[in-house]
Amino acid sequence: MAISARVDSYLKDHGIKYQVVNHRYSEGAYNTAVAAHIPMKKLAKAVLLTDHDDKHLLVVLPASNLLSLKDLSKKLDRELRFVQEKDLSVFFADCSTGAIPAIGQAYNLSMIWDDHLQEESDIYIEGGDHEALVHMNKEEFLKLMADQPHMIISERGAAHLKETGAH
Question: In 90-148, at which residue ranges do the beta strands (DSSP E only) sit?
Answer without folding.
Answer: 111-114, 122-126, 132-137
